[in-house]
């Protein structure tokens, strides 16, 4: 699947069925998919997030609601009406669109997942008191989602950073310094990802693959992906990352 990240230059990430299957199993449990769930399919099929909407819904017997009018995706009020009309219970939405959706249209939502960009404490305060609100983080190169935080606390400090949580199943997260040494709680470093979700590499880009998919010094013969994101472990063992641009040189946390 093609991704540009923050570069604007698309490259094809060669993901595996192993990574895809691992993610589906995780999300069915984490998001609460079941045969009674009514799941919104919001993301474009050209975007990796669509996989995390479609496949867990189909694999769990949930009902998947497709938006057949492209204008609904870009009109928050129309989207709100769609959600209310179809009594959607599970939706994954980017934080940028949430403030524009009338809160009453989201009354049917039982689980709200935010992903794709940084979520503000103000959004958590607005929505987490009404539903199970989760925050997901992950790059295409590691099968869409690698950490999940939640349920988020509606009483969280307005000055805090919304955490991105703990690794999904069969996934390892490392916060490392420039010499690939692990960093202690509270110290920012680059976030590395290892485990079942890693892509094979970039299609036709051997040099870039070697640069971003590196040997894992903690597991002989394994690899890890350099995310380019800064993060730090929180006291409770989770992670935080402020993604206002999302690349190393900023000060995020898991």
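Sequence proposed for the structure above (254 residues):
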């Amino acid at each position: 699947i093609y991704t540009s990240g923050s570069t604007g230059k698309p490259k094809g990430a060669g993901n595996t069925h192993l990574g895809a299957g691992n993610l589906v199993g995780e999300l069915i449990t984490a998001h609460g998919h079941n045969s009674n769930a009514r799941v919104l399919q919001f993301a474009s099929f050209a975007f990796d997030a669509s996989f995390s909407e479609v496949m867990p819904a189909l694999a769990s017997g949930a009902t998947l609601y497709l938006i057949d009018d492209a204008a609904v995706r870009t009109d928050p009020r129309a989207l709100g009406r769609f959600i209310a009309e179809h009594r959607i219970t599970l939706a994954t939405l980017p934080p940028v669109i949430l403030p524009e959706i009338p809160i009453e249209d989201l009354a049917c939502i039982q689980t709200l997942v935010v992903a794709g960009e940084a979520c503000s404490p103000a959004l958590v305060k607005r929505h987490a008191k009404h539903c199970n609100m989760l925050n997901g983080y992950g790059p295409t190169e590691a099968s869409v989602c690698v950490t999940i935080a939640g349920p988020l606390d509606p009483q969280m400090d307005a000055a805090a950073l919304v955490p991105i949580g703990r690794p999904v199943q069969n996934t390892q997260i490392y916060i490392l310094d420039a010499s690939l040494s692990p960093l202690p709680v509270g110290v920012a470093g680059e976030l590395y990802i290892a485990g079942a979700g890693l892509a094979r590499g970039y299609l036709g880009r051997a040099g870039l693959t070697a640069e971003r998919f590196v040997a894992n010094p903690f597991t002989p013969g394994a690899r890890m992906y350099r995310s380019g994101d800064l993060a730090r472990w929180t006291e409770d063992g989770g992670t935080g990352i402020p993604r206002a641009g999302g690349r190393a040189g900023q000060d995020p946390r898991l």
